[in-house]
Amino acid sequence: MKNWKMLCIVTLLAQSQPLWAADVAALLQWSQRVELSAPVSGVVQAVQVDVGDQVKKGQTLLSLDGTAYQAKVAENRAAISRHSAEMTETKRDLARTSELHERDVIAQVDMDQAKLRHARAQTLLAEAQARLKQSQKELDESVVRAPFDAVVVARQVEPGQTVAARLQPQTLLVLAKSGEMLARARLSEAQINPLKIGQAVTVVVGKQNYTGKIKALGLEPSNEKPESVYPVDVIFTPGEQLRAGMAATIKLP
Question: How many Cα atoms sit within 13 Å of 73 on the Cβ side?
Answer without folding.
Answer: 13
